[in-house]
Every structure is written in C-alpha cells, then in structure tokens.
C-alpha cells in the first residue's frame, strides 16, 4: 500500500514577500537602473548629489526604526495598556540598525561639503520630513508592519549594498574627503560591524524574521505583504519629491553639476538624483525574491553639524 503523500508545507512569510514584490521590483529596477554613475565622477566632482539622496532616503529608515525603538522602550504593560508585541523583541538583531550610521554619514558629508551645502541639506531634510513622520506614525500604530519595512529595507542593504558600496568607492579618496583609509569615508550606511561584512547579521536577521513571522495572524501577514508592495511606491514618491525639489529648484541643488540647467540636461527621467542611494534596489531586492560620530575619531558624543544626536557604537 502506497504511503500517503505529505501535505505541502505553507510558505514562510519571507517566501510570500519575495513572491509578492517581484513585479514591483521589476518596475523599480527599470526606473533606477544605470542611474548610479550620475552621482559620481565625471558627472560631478563632489558627493553633494549622493548626500541629497541619502538625506531623504534616511527618513524611511529613521521612521520605522524610531517607531520600533519607541515600542520596545515602553514600560511593562498593565491592565490599562497594550503590551509590546513579542515579535518586535524577537526580530531585534544586533548590529542591524542603520539610522545612527546614516546620521554619521550625513554629518561627515556636511563637514566635507562646507557650510553652504550644509544649509542646503538642512533645508532638504526639513522639506521632506513628512516621509519620516508618516512612516513613524504608521509603524507606531500598526507594529506588525515593522516586519514589512525591516524585510524590505534591510535585505536591500544586505544584498545590494556591497555592489553599490564598491561602485561608490571607485570615486576614490579625493571624492570622499581625502583619507586613503576607506573606513574614514562616509559610507558607513553600507557597512556592518564584525568580520563577515554583514553576512552573519543577515543570517541572524532572517532566522529571527522567520520566528517573528510565525507569531503573526493570517491577517497581519497579509498586511505585511501588502505594505511591502506599497513601500516600492513610497520609494517612487521619494524619487518624485527629490526630482521636484532638487531638479526644479527651491534652493536645494542649483549648484550641482554646474547649475540646475546642466543637471536637467543630464537627467532624462525622474529619480536620478536619488539613484546613487537607491541603485542597490535594482540588484538587492531581486536576490531575496547601535552605533559615534567619532567612529574614526575619539569623540565622546554630542550632536553633528545638522543637529542629529550621535552615540557610541562598535567600529565596523
């Protein structure tokens, strides 16, 4: 007598996510491919275009990471409060957070670019802060959506970050501040503490994500998948905002690439300004289909040039 065929196992949440975003990834890939060189020589002589993209993209990371930290810092629940979901503790992975690294990169870039460019970056940050606010509020009110942001944003860095970092490093020490040591360059966003260049952090994050995903209800899993798909639309909104504010003016980027008209001639479609930061999407997502300002200088802490609080962190 033939043995019964075992029932197929249900896909994990990660498998559901990889399948769900394939079309969105393809569309965004087409939008952003081949944009990276435009923030590097010979198209520009300094990292101002890259800095502008980083300043806006970081709103997405700070938005969900601040919400996550806020929820984890809540005191123990009582009869009148809602407990912090256990899956948020499960998912928390050492050396994973990006927002402090991004803050240090922005600080170092502003120091290199000088006071005039720093003012422009501050204006751009303020003008696009709504991306942070909306992301923070959404994740604070719906904690299970943190899994959508974590999976989408972290795996993009894990899988595409090495490629984009290597391309950025080709610009050389003069472009990134003059130090021959790459550890001094403002590219910490793409680096992870430890000896495995993030591979160990990725393995641990994926392991924790699978456990956390099993703690969600079916409706919450569906919400996470839907939000992951929507995040691609959020990236496109970031692109459009940068295109409008930086390319069309408003005082943020008139000097880059020899002036706004020169920039217009180079940019043949929306999204190019942020392409240097988002280029990793093209290669990264398809493959998955904290923390001192003085990381290189002994400083006890304080605030960076743009007023962002900094703390100590293990050196990458």
From TrEMBL:
The keyword Methyltransferase does not apply. InterPro entries: Haem_Oase (IPR002051), Haem_Oase-like_multi-hlx (IPR016084). GO terms for biological process: heme oxidation. The keyword Cell inner membrane does not apply. GO terms for molecular function: heme oxygenase (decyclizing) activity; metal ion binding. Keywords: Heme, Iron, Metal-binding. This is Heme-binding protein HMX1. It comes from Cyphellophora attinorum.
């Amino acid at each position: 007598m033939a043995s019964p065929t075992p029932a197929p196992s249900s896909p994990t949440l990660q498998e559901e996510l990889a399948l769900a975003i394939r079309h969105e990834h393809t569309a965004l890939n087409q939008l952003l491919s081949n944009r990276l060189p435009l923030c590097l020589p010979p198209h520009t002589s300094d990292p101002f275009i890259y800095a502008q993209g980083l300043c806006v993209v970081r709103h997405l990371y700070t938005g969900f990471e601040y919400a996550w930290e806020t929820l984890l810092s809540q005191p123990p629940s009582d009869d009148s409060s809602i407990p912090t979901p256990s899956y948020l503790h499960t998912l928390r992975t050492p050396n994973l957070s990006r927002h402090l690294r991004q803050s240090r990169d922005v600080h170092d870039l502003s120091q290199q670019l000088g006071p005039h460019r720093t003012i422009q970056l501050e204006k751009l940050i303020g003008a696009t802060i709504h991306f942070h606010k909306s992301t923070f509020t959404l994740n604070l009110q719906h904690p299970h959506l943190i899994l959508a942001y974590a999976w989408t944003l972290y795996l993009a860095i894990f899988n595409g970050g090495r490629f984009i970092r290597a391309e950025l490093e080709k610009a050389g020490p003069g472009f990134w501040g003059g130090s021959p040591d790459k550890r001094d360059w403002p590219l910490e966003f793409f680096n992870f503490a430890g000896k495995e260049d993030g591979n160990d952090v990725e393995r641990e994050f994926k392991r924790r994500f699978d456990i956390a995903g099993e703690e969600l209800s079916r409706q919450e899993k569906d919400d996470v998948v839907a939000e992951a798909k929507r995040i691609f639309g959020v990236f496109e909104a970031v692109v459009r905002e940068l295109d409008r504010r930086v390319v069309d003016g408003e005082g943020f980027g008139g000097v880059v690439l020899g002036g706004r008209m020169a920039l217009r001639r180079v940019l043949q479609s929306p999204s190019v300004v942020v392409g240097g930061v988002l280029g990793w999407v093209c290669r990264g997502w398809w493959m998955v289909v904290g923390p001192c300002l003085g990381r290189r200088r002994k400083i006890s802490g304080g605030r960076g040039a743009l007023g962002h609080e900094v703390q100590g962190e293990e050196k990458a």
